[in-house]
Specification:
The chain has one domain: Sandwich (Jelly Rolls). The protein has 139 residues and is mainly beta. It is built from no helices and 12 strands. The structure holds beta-D-galactopyranose.
């Protein structure tokens, strides 16, 4: 796992915070991930994983040391070597994902205690040009 970015927001990032990642996939990209993690442990509340080899986006959670049920999005808007913007925000019920300002999927919260989701991580085949975390709505 090649860690490209990690931020820790002790007050929690859900709901109401928006993560905007501008980047470009690496040439010969295989996959990259954006993970929303809980506190200090290894639970992943939301794993967003575009896979170039499968032209699929895999979404999942990793709780109690196990991957959960995958949710796949077959609409694959990423093109190797081309820049893109991913925005992920959340409300009380779902994460919402937009690529280049078009909504592509939502993922229902599996971790119900939203304030425990405090870390955002970007890993693997991506070149990051900027990452912004900002408050989108007031809760
Ligand atoms: C696994 C993969 C993990 C994660 C998971 C999602 O096959 O090794 O990195 O992507 O799928 O369900």
């Amino acid at each position: 796992m090649a860690l490209r970015f990690e931020a820790w927001c002790p007050a929690g990032v859900c709901p109401g915070w928006s993560v905007i990642l501008k980047g470009e996939s690496r040439s010969h990209a295989n996959k990259f991930e954006i993970n929303f993690l809980c506190d200090q442990d290894d639970r992943i509340a939301f794993h967003f994983n575009p896979r170039f080899t499968e032209s699929d986006i895999v979404c999942n959670s990793f709780l109690k040391n196990h991957w959960g049920q995958e949710e796949r999005c077959t609409h694959f808007p990423f093109v190797a070597d081309e820049p893109f913007q991913i925005e992920i925000d959340s409300d009380d019920d779902n994460f919402h994902v937009y690529v280049d300002d078009t909504k592509i999927l939502q993922f229902k919260h599996r971790v119900k205690d939203l304030k425990t989701i405090t870390r955002v991580q970007v890993v693997n085949d991506i070149i990051i040009s900027s990452l912004e975390i900002s408050k989108k709505h007031f809760y």
